[in-house]
Amino acid sequence: QISYVILRPEALLDSVEVDAEALRALYEDRADQYQVPARRLVERLVFPSDEDATAAMAQLDAGDITFEALVTDRGLTLGDIDLGDLPIDALGDAGEAVFATDVGGVVGPLPSEFGPALFRVNGILDARATSFEDAEAELRDELAADRARRVIEARSEDIDDLLAGGASLEDVATETDLVLGTIKFHA
User: What's the maximum distance between 2 C-alpha atoms anywhere in the chain?
Assistant: First the structure.
């Protein structure tokens, strides 16, 4: 049998004070996590000229070719043109038109940093805003856990002194917040 005493930060969460200003500051520091703008899942197929892009869009509109075939004809794969999910400002001058397009729609030719391009929208991700009040419990737990770890570090010297003075683990558990436990150890 192995006896031990343990004090986990979770055991102190309710007893540590968390400063309201620190909570607000942590929320502000993580604004990008709690205030996520609307995004679009976008593919961008760039062409060497406006004429080429306009001709490709005309073929698409007429139903003569699919977007996938246009990509293959350019020697690319869908993975090559996938931009992932982007907010409107990351799309530059094409942002407004791309955001006005429905899922599966192709829009263009529009300007891009690499030249005229056709953009296909594969998904719409709505904006997500989490208020301070909704995030407060999560932030409080995180700050309280950090504060609890510091409290434990501060108490560790006193606990070491008790043990060095000859106190048993049972005595330490009685005199402090530590919890006494045992485990069975065998080969």
Answer: 89
Is 148 strand, coil or helix?
A: helix
End-to-end, the C-alpha distance of the chain in Å comes to: 12
pLDDT band at 14; cut points 50, 70, 90 = confident
Region 128-149: mean pLDDT is 87
Type of residue at 109: P
For residue 67, what is the DSSP state? H
User: pTM for the full model?
Assistant: 0.61
User: Can you give the pLDDT at residue 171?
Assistant: 87
Altogether, the residues listed in the chain come to a count of 187
Q: Is 172 helix (H, G, I), strand (E, B) or coil?
A: helix
Residues 163/165/169/173 CA torsion (nearest 10 deg): -90
Question: How far, in Å, CA of 106 to CA of 59, rounded?
Answer: 12
Structure tokens of 171? 């005595």
Instruction: Find residue 150's DSSP bridge partners.
Output: none
Q: Crossing angle for the helix pair 20-29 and 132-164, nearest 10 degrees?
A: 120
| Two tokens, residue 41 | 């899942």
Cα–Cα distance measured from residue 110 to residue 92, given in angstroms and rounded to the nearest whole number: 10
